[in-house]
Amino acid sequence: MSEFRSRFPGYNVLDKWNTPSWNEQTRRVVEKRLHDIPERRFFDADEWVTLEAVCARIVPQPDRPHAPVPIAPWIDQKLFENRRDGYRYADMPSMQQAWRLGLCGIDDESRRRFRARFRDLPPERQDDVLRGIQQGDVSGEVWQTLPPQRFFKSRLLTDIVGVYYAHPAAWNEIGFGGPASPRGYVRLEFDRRDPWEAAERRDD
């Protein structure tokens, strides 16, 4: 894997902490995301390890090997509290059931292809398993009740990537200024930015 290079070097959204960009409510929300990490309450210990391995392949974090953005805890909390999306595809089981079936299916597919649990595979083989699910190239009983491509897109990607980009460390990567409260954003046109927004590095 190539070395991570930020397009916004030196930018830290937390520098806005005591500026007009953020009010007290915004600071409380960001503080909770940074430090109030939920405990595991929905998944069992076995499912949890598989989930963490999947998260590490969907959103690799080579630039922070010792302190990655926590993703699994927030997915677990969402499922424990049964905070649904407000809609469900007709061919999909409930959100909670889909995740349990999906993690089971990922491990089953790993055993079928490589005779090992997903967590025990090297990264390139883990990617092969996930790519098979993404393309619908899987077999096994689980996938008879859980459409693999739908699961990959609407659960794996939506939940994992959504949690990742709710974290300030991910905001730094894309130059996002965080919640626009109370200052707001003014220059919304293409290729324009407010003075307090991050400046993108231009390699060209």
Question: What do these coordinates show?
Answer:
α5 packs across α7. The chain is mostly helical and 204 residues long. It is elongated. It has 8 helices and no strands. The mean pLDDT is 92. 47% of the residues lie in helices and 0% in strands.
Summary of the model, kept short:
Helix 4 (95-114) packs across helix 5. The chain has eight helices and no strands.
Largest sheet: none
Q: Describe the global form.
A: elongated
Low-confidence stretches: none
| Cα separation of the termini | 23 Å
- Specify Rg, calculated over alpha carbons: 19 Å
Content-based structural category: mainly alpha
On the 0 to 100 scale, the average pLDDT is 92
Helix content: 40-55%
State the total count of DSSP E strands. 0
Number of helices: 8
The amount of beta strand, in percent, is: under 5%
What letter string, H or E per element, gives the SSE order?
A: HHHHHHHH
List keywords for this structure.
204 residues, mainly alpha, 8 helices, 0% strand, elongated
